[in-house]
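Residues pack. One example:


***
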Amino acid sequence: MTLRETQVVLEGITVGGKSIKEHLEVINHEKAILYLNDLVKKNNPITEWNIKGIHQLILKDIDDKNAGRYRRENVSIKGATHIPPDYLKVPELMEKLVLNYENWNNIHPIIQAALLHGELVKINPFVDGNGRTSRLLMNLDLMNHGYNPVIIKKEDRLEYYEALDKAHITGNYTDFIQLITRLEIEMLNKYLELL
């Protein structure tokens, strides 16, 4: 949806030619952002519970059977070289991700947030909504550290997907971290322009 269409949906009006799912995705995303704001206000840490909570809000009324639940089947990522791990490994990998994250407090918050996003998408713990969940989780981490949330714009999507796939295949997150850093700087500049 366009920005204007999104605004209209959030005002409670339906947009002709758009599916119910598209409307629900917009509404659910807003609820997930409000949830993030609550987590930031309460200084809640990154936990599996919060990750599942974000995912549950994203898929609410779209796929309630899988909302907030780790996948119980193997999946592939369209257009990516990386193949997500077997679904049987997902609970263990998610537990390790949160434990590893807790040990990343000695690295810069932007790098930490980018790694959290990248590693979550690498695991691809959910049947659907992994990208949205990981971007929201990255923004939660950024906001918890006093940074602005970043937006992956349409014109940045190809670079975003390529950097993530490279990181997943080679373990080299440099391109992805540079992208997130650039987007954070852009958001900071926009914020400063408003002052």
